[in-house]
Amino acid sequence: IIKGVIFDLDGVIVSTDSLHYLAWKKIADKEGIYFDEEINHRLRGVSRIESLNILLEKANRVYTEEEKMRLADEKNNYYIELLKNLTPNDVLPGIIKVLKVLKEKGIKIAIGSSSKNAKVILERIGLLNSFDAISDGNDITRSKPFPDVFLVTAQKLWLKPEHCLVVEDAVAGIKAAKAAGMFAAAIGDAKKSVEADFILDSIEDLLRYV
Ligand code: B16
Ligand code: MG
């Protein structure tokens, strides 16, 4: 029995995944490093610094820790600039309806994101006060595929992991949900995950499972 649904943010509630791509692409181009959409899928759900490490796999030299910190900061500054253009119109289709139905059914709703910018994003899209709990990259040190962000969220909801269902667009996020002992529903890129309990062709499909 599902008592709480934990939503990933980037790629599930709002398409900030495409903004992450633009910001990383700018860094890659400046550094002369090959980067494409395929590599970008691997950055879904993982932390900023781990994302940079994946991007640097294609670099032809070694970067110092100091250089890495500078590049990660630079990327985040571009990304924050891009976030300023977000409005409530950027909430992905079907989300508002699904949140409303879940609330009506008495199911708790939460955000479990790896992003340190999660609250800024939720504020911009007008959903900061819509959830029973929000956990993000500031609550944890190990990001997805570790289960930490979802376990913290379940605690904030006062729910056991086995009563929670996670909605994710990242393969790393599905792994994290399963490692947390929760149900996992995959949408978008995560549909290729073999670990997901449910595959969603659209977010409304979620309502079949709760
Ligand atoms: P930031 P999610 C994740 O958010 C993104 O999918 C991932 O691409 C990003 O690297 C990570 O947040 C960290 O984001 O640089 O803003 O702290 O999908 O877990 O909501
Ligand atoms: Mg995501």
TrEMBL record:
InterPro entries for this protein: B-phosphoglucomutase_hydrolase (IPR010976), Beta-PGM (IPR010972), HAD-like_sf (IPR036412), HAD-like_SPP (IPR051806), HAD-SF_hydro_IA (IPR006439), HAD_sf (IPR023214), PGP-like_dom2 (IPR023198)
Any GO molecular function: sugar-phosphatase activity
Which residues are listed for substrate binding in this entry?
A: 8-10, 24, 43-48, 51, 75, 113-117, 144
Q: Which GO terms describe its biological process?
A: carbohydrate metabolic process
**The record's free-text note on cofactor binding:** Binds 2 magnesium ions per subunit.
Q: Which UniProt keywords apply?
A: Magnesium, Metal-binding
> Which residues does UniProt mark as catalytic?
D8, D10
What SUPFAM superfamilies has UniProt attached to this entry?
HAD-like
Coiled-coil intervals, chain numbering? none
Residues holding Mg(2+): D8, D10, E168, D169
Site (Important for catalytic activity and assists the phosphoryl transfer reaction to Asp8 by balancing charge and orienting the reacting groups) location in chain: S113, K144
Needed cofactors: Mg(2+)
User: Is Glycoprotein included in the keywords of this UniProt record?
Assistant: no
Q: Which Pfam families match?
A: Hydrolase
Family indicated by similarity: Belongs to the HAD-like hydrolase superfamily. CbbY/CbbZ/Gph/YieH family.
What's the name of the protein?
Beta-phosphoglucomutase
Q: In which organism is this protein found?
A: Caldicellulosiruptor hydrothermalis (strain DSM 18901 / VKM B-2411 / 108)
